[in-house]
Amino acid sequence: MPLKITDELTEVVLRAKAENPELNISQLARKLKKSYGISYAFDSLRKAVVKILTKKKENKIDIDFDNDEFDIVLPDSKAVDRPFHKIYGKRILILSDTHIPYHDNSPLKLALKTAWDFGIDTILLNGDIIDFYPMSKFARDPNQRDVFEELRTCEIFLQQVKHKFNNCKIIFKEGNHEYRLRKYIYEKAPELVNIPELALPSLLHFSKYQIDFVDAWTVMQAGKLNIIHGHEILGGGINVARTQVLKSLDNILFGHFHRHQDYTQRTIADKVVGGWAVGCLSHLKPDYYPVNNYIHGFALVNVDEQGFFEVHNKKIINNYVK
Description:
Largest sheet: 7 strands, mixed
Radius of gyration: 34 Å
Order of helices and strands: HHHEEHEHEHHEEEHEEEEEE
Helix content: 25-40%
Shape: elongated
Distance between the termini: 97 Å
Number of strands: 13
CATH topology of the largest domain: Purple Acid Phosphatase, chain A, domain 2
Structural class: alpha/beta
Strand order of the largest sheet: 5-4-3-2-11-12-13
Mean pLDDT: 90
CATH architecture of the largest domain: 4-Layer Sandwich
Strand content: 15-25%
């Protein structure tokens, strides 16, 4: 007959196991017979030990959790929740990569004239409007390290745009070149980080010109079109428009790469998404990269009441807008 497992036997077995944790089942059964006064047959006792220890393990896991058991206190997270910056214009001009003071006047004026004829209500200056050459991490010509001159030239540009397009909403997106200023302060003078007068909106007097500022890592949306500068998504390749679509998995327009490209793709659910790489308005042959595939360009975007949009991705070749 199998050995009857009583509360008294269970208590003795558990005490013996706690006092001799290194023993296996057979060794523990022998120990119980020799040292704990248990006189049952060895095989019956060994089976009883297995049942007692197995039942203890099963009872150790309580699957009927009480929520109060998880009332733990954690420090607040330092992660930043970045909502989309909504652009509510219906006829939008998108300029990027002027790289002032290395801009190219002729295509820049053509872009603004085309936008004027288009009847825009919003201007998005989509990053790398100012170059901040003196803050570059690359080798720099000492004769061109004049931050004040760059800021002065950029403000002249902003002033004239505001004067000409006085009724338009103007938005300034921080690109990777504008971010050079913040990064420089972070690395070279961290004690100055919280001085607002050293931030880009103060240095370029955005409040004076009623310009809204969007930081380097915030994504913008005009209806169903996502807009970034381009540095926010890592990777480029030959077809940067295709790369950005595959990485964002949505409609996306951007600058940054100084190229003019369009890419459209239909998903398995019959949703059509597109990517638009907008050309630059800087000089096409900078000393650091004189042989390249840069293209002058800008974009005009129509957005309807439902958020559907139409992108006119313009390129400028030989002083003609195409």
